[in-house]
Amino acid sequence: MSISRIILLLSVGLFLLVVFVPSFRHGLSRQIAGLTTSSETLTVATNRGNSLGDGTDSESQDLEIITLLGFDAIPAILDPNFVDAITADRDMKSNELVLGLSINGDSRAYPIPMLSSHEIVNDVVGGEPVAVTW
Amino acid sequence: MYGRITNGEEHTFGVSGKLIMNALVMYDHQTRTLWSQFMREAVKGELVGTQLEVIPVTQTTWQAWKELHPDTLVLDKNGRYGFDTYRGYYEDSRAGVLGASEDDDRLNRKELVLGVEIDGQSKAYSFAALESEVIVNDTIAGQDALVYFDASSGTALVFDRTVGDVSLTFSVEDGPGGVLTVFVDEETNTRWSAFTGVAIEGELKGERLKRAVSHLSFWFAWKDWNPDTELYQG
């Protein structure tokens, strides 16, 4: 068998796999997208307004939960350190975005570029345990 | 922003690496329950069904926050984080990690909106409308709401404009603007600090308008999460 014949057969084989085997096509396209993902459907009870809103009054809804990364691939902050405003000023631009929180006279700012990298900061503000998320 | 105490137990949260509706899914270290930012509750694991307490935050510029709270603490950058890893994302037309579910023609998908949800009813205010109007006295799901936007810092705040039994109607007082912006209500002529919702002078001095939870997001994301949303375009 010539090389070109082998290549032709392999190409046809691959084409048939992609066309006729859905899981192969699905996996292939996800890999090509640069992400290897898996997805799972959860059924959760709807007891609040934030639903997928098809207008029907149902007791449960299906949510797709997609796994992109492993646990802690993005590291949440568990033990945050703080500086005062004067010190912070050295590293902050005037128009830099922050999430600001003031509870019981305890005011804190969380720079959004940092929140982008960590997604969650576990903190205690004015005596209240809070999770600042982005 | 969430309270970390549920059912009397304090939790710490990590990033699960999973998404629901393009939004963060956290896990707690104590039980490894999964918590959805979109659903505002635990969706899988021992604590499934437990609701998260949502606490309003203020998204604003460092300049504005520093003026408002000179004694503020700031999360230590440790000399890093000079740029936002998502910066390119804000500018281009990609929608989420997994794409938008469908397009809604009322606004461009990457246009910013202020989204509010009260009692199951959702309403979005386009940034263009907010920029030109600055405040909107509105009603959502029967609740009278005050929507305020400061263009200089990109700060958007929603307050409940009912104090006691009285629904107040606000206008912006001529003045410096930014964090020094003052509202006046036409019912009592009380003057209020726009950024804090605190009455600073007049009959209702000392009262504080309650903040409603609102989200600054892209139109495509808000629409995905709230398919029946109303849209205010001025």
3D structure, described in words:
The complex is a heterodimer of chains A (134) and B (234). Chain A has 134 residues and is of the alpha+beta class. Chain A has four helices and seven strands; from the N terminus they run ααβββαββαββ. In chain A, helix 1 crosses helix 2. The relative contact order of chain A is 0.10. Residues 27-33 and 49-55 of chain A have low confidence and may be disordered. Chain B has two domains: 5-44, no CATH class; 61-234, 3-layer Sandwich (Rieske Iron-sulfur Protein), CATH 2.102.10. Chain B contains four helices and 23 strands. The mean pLDDT of chain B is 91. The chains are: A alpha+beta (134), B mainly beta (234). At the A-B interface, strand 1, strand 2, strand 3, helix 3 and strand 4 of A face strand 1, strand 4, strand 5, strand 7 and strand 8 of B.
List the topology elements.
The complex is a heterodimer of chains A (134) and B (234).
Chain A: H1 3-20, H2 22-32, E1 38-45, E2 60-67, E3 82-84, H3 85-89, E4 97-103, E5 106-111, H4 112-118, E6 120-125, E7 128-133
Antiparallel strand pairs in A: 1-2, 4-5, 6-7
Helix pairs in contact in A: 1-2
Chain B: E1 2-3, E2 5-6, E3 9-10, E4 13-20, E5 23-28, E6 34-36, E7 41-44, E8 58-61, H1 62-68, E9 73-75, H2 87-91, E10 112-118, E11 121-126, H3 127-133, E12 135-140, E13 143-150, E14 155-160, E15 162-163, E16 166-167, E17 170-172, E18 182-185, E19 191-193, E20 199-201, E21 211-212, E22 214-218, H4 219-225, E23 230-232
Parallel strand pairs in B: 11-23
Antiparallel strand pairs in B: 2-3, 4-5, 5-6, 6-7, 10-11, 10-22, 12-13, 13-14, 14-21, 15-16, 17-18, 18-19, 19-20
